[in-house]
Every structure is written in structure tokens, then in C-alpha cells.
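Input/output pair, single chain:
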Amino acid sequence: MSLREKTFSAVRWTSLSAIVRGVIQFAQVAILARLLTHEDFGLMAIIWVVIQMANILVDSGIGAAYMQRKEVTEEQRSSLFWFNVFLGLIVTLMMVLASPMLGWFFGDDRYTTLMMLCAPTLLINALSMQLVWTAEKKLEFRSVSIMQIASTAIGFGVTMLTAFGGWGVYSFIAGSIIASLAATAFAWRYCSLGWRPQLRFKFKEIESFVRFGWALIGGTIVSILTAGADLLIGGRMATASQLGLYSVPRNLIIQVQMLLGSVIARVGFPLTSLVQDDIPRVRGILLRSHNILASLCAPLYVGLSFFAEDVVQLTLGSNWNESVVILQTLSLWGFFKITAAPDASLTLGVGRVDLLLKWNIASLFVVPPVLWVSIHYYGLSGMSLAMLVLFIALIFPRWLVFVRPICQAGLYEYLKSFLKPFFISLLAISSAYFIAMKFDGVAAHLIVGVTLASIFYFAICWKFNHEWMGEVMQLLGRKKTVSI
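Output:
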């Protein structure tokens, strides 16, 4: 296939994976919200932040180096594979040994047990990392999508069985471990294409990968610390139950970001790497990525903000009413946060990890202090509002640091690429909301609201966002006017 055909095939498969996994994870939250306590969700919110940082250590930025490098020998692949497995083993042992410190820091010994049980997923994931990188590097996303959908479905089944069996918070752990095992097994079945690592390891062969990765990993860890600062600060200053009321709507927003954002990030990174020396093409990829991502996400996030009360009632139940205001605010925060995804792919694709490192370090000195002050004086709802204001304020600096120097995109065209879909969504959904509120009942609000909002949104996009409508038609195979 041509590069254009490979790109749209990759987007189709990653979109399918995102939709299916999103539905599964949404169903999981909706069911568990009625089976588990606020406290259970609060405990796991902290564990997931720590595991996410640990996974970054296992990757060590080598995945980005591997994807960015145009040529990789078979010998280098084998050495990289064993290096990642070794890191997975070391980081797993580190997490087990450090787990008592987690319990001490948050004043709850349950964190220690949960961390010990969840740590083995790090080693399990390390066994399949390179297989996934190789498939994505070649824009072969069909096998990766099959693996992700199947493992997510299996993890969901195990989580449900154990939750109904009365395992409580440990049902999260059971589902996570089984999902990791399934993902690794499916990766070797569908992504390996018969490849097996050689029994050899030479650090000299991968030294350049490690140097690139370690230049990236510092900034990535700082980025994860910054991104998870609200949970870490909330876990320290609020009870596990209060944190649960905050973390569930937050995780709903993050899941949308991870699923839809990953479509652009996972395709945009290798695509940008392939054309990194052609600035006009890099600029075109960035602006179109912003427009596509914003056009997909804006109606979801704006809709969640307007219909937050109905969504909470229908999916979580009346015990979660305190989460409504937080969901309304975090929905808008989620939109402005996800607009950073294409910028990160741009920076990685052209190898400018130095800019990411400087940005993430600067953010660490700004974001946590602001969040600490906001939660100290205004509680968790105040902290969510502070996060929204922060991400809006960071749009211009992000353009100044990343976008203008790398691909020479102007501020107007940069803002237009993602703010136009946002304002179209605002107009369409606000109109649908006021009509839907004339009907009685939660189900009626959502059915009428979603139906009218969809009609209004696509009608306005057809007139004012024809770039995105053209991309949609091309993805459906109905139109072929865009070159890459």
C-alpha cells in the first residue's frame, strides 16, 4: 500500500480499537460503580498513577527511539528486546520493595498490598513491548488492534466475575493481571510475524537508542508526575472516599483521551518520523491531526459537560451525585488537555526530545503548586477548575515552544485547527441541551440530546468544518482528495 493508504488503514484500525475498548471500559466503570465503594476507586487511582510511572521506566524511552530510527538491524532488535525484559524485571522488584513506602506516604497499608499485587504486570508488559513497536513502526495496526480489543475484553470479564464474587478492590488487580497476560500472548500470536529474539545481548549495539531514550525518559517521568499531581496531592490531602468521587469522573475523561488521543499519537508519531525532513508536510500532518482529534473529541467533552448530571445518574447512580460538578469542569479540561497530544507526536517525530524535557520540567514547577493551593482552599472541585484554567493558559506557550520552531505553523492556523471544532460543538450541543431539557427523565434527556446534537453538529461541520468532513469521507472510502 502507499503511505496514504497505510495511514488511513492505521487510523481505521486504531479508531475501531478505541471505540470498542472505550465501550468496554465505560461499561466496566458503570457496573463497578454499583458494586464497589468510593474508597475502592480512590485507592486504585493512586496505584494506577504509580504503575503508569513504572511502565515509563520499563520503556525507558526506547520505544520512541526505536520508532524514530529509520533503520534497525535484527541484532539491535534482539539486544533491545532483552534490555527491556531486564528493565521489566528490575522495575518490578523495585516496586515490590518500595510498596511499603507508598503505604506510609498515604497513611494506608492497603496501598502496600495493592502495589505488590499489581507490580508483576510491569514484567509481563515488557515481554511484548517491542512486538507492538515494530507493528506500529510499519503502520500495521490491524494486529495491534486485535490484540488490544481481545485483551481488554478478557480483562473486563475477569474484573466482572471477581467483582460479583465479592473481591472488592482486588477485582481491579485480577482483571489487570489477566489482561496483561492476554495482551502479551496475543502480541506474540498476531504481531511477531514469526520473529524470535536471538540469544545475544550487546549494549554497544543499542547505546544510541538508550541515549535517545534516557534523554526522553526524564521529561516523560516529570510529565507523568505533573499529569498525576492532582491525584497524588488529592490522595495526600483528602480521604480515599473523597478521592474516589473525584477520580471516577477524571478517569472517564482520561479514558477518552487515551483511546481517541492514541489514534492520533500512535499514527502521527511514526508518520511524522517518515517525513521529518519535509517541514511543509510535517506542518500539514500536525494541523490536520489537531483538526481530526478536536472534531472527534469536542462533541464528546462538551456533551459530557452539559449532560453531566444525567450521565452520572444513568451510569454511576445517585451515590455519585457529588461528582457532577467535577465532571462538568473536567470535561472541558479534558478537551484542552488532549490538544497537546499532536504537539507531543510532532516533537518526538522530529527527534526534539530536548524541548519536551525543558517543557515538562518547567510544568513541574507550575502545575503542582497551583493544584496544592487550590485544593487546600477550595477542595477537589476547586482543584478541577484550576486544572481547566491552567491548560487554557498553556496553549500559547505550547505553540511558542513546540509548534512555531519545529513546523513554522502560525498562531492563527494553530488555534483554528482545534478551537473551530470546539465552538461548533458548543453551538450544536447547547442548542440540543435546551430542547432536551423540555422532556422528562434522564433517558429522554440523553436520547433527545444526543440525537439532536449529532444532527446539529454534522450539519454545521458540513458547512464550516469541511476539512474534517473530507477526512471522514476518505476514511469511509468515499472520497480520495487528500495527499500525505
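Residues 160 and 274 are 42 Å apart (CA to CA). Residues 3-475 form one domain.
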